Every structure is written in structure tokens, then in C-alpha cells.
Amino acid sequence: MEVIEASAKRKNEKVITIKLALNEECVIDSAEALGDFFAVNPEVLEEMLRSLAGARAVDVKWREFLKDMARVSGLYGVSRETLDSLAIKLAKEVSRACREDAATK
């Protein structure tokens, strides 16, 4: 199992980090959001993160997922630009991790 994470923060905003636990097949075992941001509906945020379990990390459309997560959970203190930056970083980390796993098989 490999744990990867990506973070983003812009000036005058809150930091947000997404942490993923991936199994040997690059399938998400668990996901969590960390940082000093605020969610109006934290239960919905947790539910969305739990919904990632079982998905192939390379198949997740991170920009779309993060945008939806922010909208339905009422994420406060993080801009769309920060979420876009986070999506790009997350996709790069997933790609790196999954290629390493594939190379060892």
C-alpha cells in the first residue's frame, strides 16, 4: 500500500490537502481531506471522500470531483483556482505512484 498526498494554498486562503491510500492495483482504499479550511456540511465531505474507495485512482476526474466536493459540502476558504491546482498536483502524484506500482509487477 502506498499513501500519497497533494496540497494547495493560495495567498489569503486556507490550505487543503488530499491524502489517498492506494493498494497494489492503484485502487483507492481510503481518502481524507486535511487542512485549515471549513466545510459547512462536513458529513457530506466525508461521504464524498468515502465514495472514492474502490475506484482506480488514475480513472478519477480529480478536477470534477474536487469541484463537486466543494459545492456539496459548502467548502469555505478555498477558491476554484486552488482546487484546480490541487487537482493537477493530485493527478501527477497518482500518475507517479501508479506507474511505480505497474513497473514492479
Model description:
With 105 residues, the protein is α+β, with helices and mostly antiparallel strands. The chain has a single domain (2-103), classed as 2-Layer Sandwich (Enolase-like, domain 1), CATH 3.30.390. It has helices at residues 42-50, 62-73, 80-103, and strands at residues 2-8, 16-22, 28-35, 38-39, 75-76. Mean pLDDT is 92; it is low at 101-105. The longest helix is centred in the C-terminal third of the chain and has 24 residues, at 80-103. The chain contains 3 helices and 5 strands; from the N terminus they run ββββααβα. The two termini are 14 Å apart. 43% of the residues lie in helices and 25% in strands. The strands form 2 sheets. A 3-stranded antiparallel beta sheet has the order 1-2-3. A two-stranded antiparallel ribbon has the order 4-5.
Overall pLDDT metric: 92
| Alpha-carbon distance between the two ends | 14 Å
% residues in beta strands: 15-25%
Major sheet size, sense and barrel closure: 3 strands, antiparallel
Give structural attributes.
Enolase-like, domain 1; three-stranded antiparallel β-sheet; 5 strands; 105 residues; single chain
Would you spell out the secondary-structure blueprint of this structure?
Blueprint: E1 2-8, E2 16-22, E3 28-35, E4 38-39, H1 42-50, H2 62-73, E5 75-76, H3 80-103
Antiparallel strand pairs: 1-2, 2-3, 4-5
